[in-house]
Amino acid sequence: MTGLALLFLCVPTFAVETNLGTEDIFYFPIFGRSDNQSDEFSGFARELFDEFSARSNVDINYVPLPVNRLFKSLLVDKSIDLKFPDNPKWRSIYHSKSSLPLIYSDPIIQDIGGVMVEAENIDSETFKLEILGTIRGFTPVPFVEKIARNEIQLIEFSNTSELLLAVNKGIIDGAFINIDVAKHQTSLLFKGKAPIRFAKKLPFIQNHYYLSTIHGKDIIDQFNAFMKCNDRLIKSLLSKYNITKI
Length: 246
What we know:
This protein is α/β, with parallel strands linked by helices. 31% of the residues lie in helices and 26% in strands. Strands 1, 4, 5, 6, 7, 8, 9, 10, 11 and 12 form a 10-stranded mixed β-sheet that branches. It has a two-stranded antiparallel ribbon with strand order 2-3. Mean pLDDT is 90; it is low at 1-8.
């Protein structure tokens, strides 16, 4: 893209209204509710999209939905225009039901999904991961084959607090979760202490979160241009919310 074209995209051109679907979970500081009592979409993603809305003349309506309903809402019902988070590797039963291809933005933030275990098990030679927990609707990709072979039992939880507390109480051996979210929430749950920690020796995934749509590439181009034009802003938000840098 030429500098002149980029400059053109950095300047608001026309007002549009759009519905952005996001996961209705407690996944702060990246996105979602800031706690289990709040119903407000917040965190890094909220502030980023608010800035995009203000600077690009796009009026965004946030639509929090259960994780399992998001793809249906975008691909089949078409009740939302955009989806965050998304990733080209993610698939659902609804992908084959849409005649329109998904269009993805440039990577927005890094997503490191790993296993949180009790601190005493971090360097344990006898620790064995037999019961794994995750958020309902999430797929613990590094462990799907062992789960299919019944070598690991999978238990799904409705929110991240229950998931992390289940590790601490010994209900599950580990929790598969984004490590930025886990670090933030363990500091709240355990008053700054760290009774559960990221097990780097266990398999983990390193992906990115994207914005997606099936409604043409114009708004995606506009969002990509916004990110390129506002690199300093994005870095400051990543720092503010203690998000792992790309």
